[in-house]
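Revision sheet: structure tokens.
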Amino acid sequence: MQRTLVFLRHAKSDWADFTLSDFERPLNLKGIKDIRKVAKWLNDKLDRTPDLILSSSAKRTKETVDGLIPAFKVNESKIKYLDELYLAGLKSILNVMKNTSPTVQTLFIIGHNQGISEAAAFLSKQSVRFFKTSCGVILNFNTDNWDLYPYSGEVMSEIVCSEID
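Predicted:
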């Protein structure tokens, strides 16, 4: 069965208020603009709605998901905010994926570096770039579940915000 996985790093966050913890930082104006651009591009590229969006529970990743919702018209029941994805490493990301229902065919994971870039590199057959903000990769897998093998994903496209018109 064909499965599609989208790894996306959160959009650019705002550092203006130094009283906020890392977890509480919102997106800045550039980040809001960028994620809307990426959402439209992703929607055109995929031509399907994600079955599930798994996101870190940090404010900037939640606001990144908010930027995706209008383009995909995603039902809130298809979005899960997980504390274990906040600054998650490779092992935590793979564990979250492994526990995803096999009925999910298109999965988005919205997270943070360094873990999100490491997970993409670990699962991709091809080399992928380290993700800047609002960047990521679309990977395709031929498998029956989300317990994926290293280097088993085919890169459909890299998501590079600065290269999207």
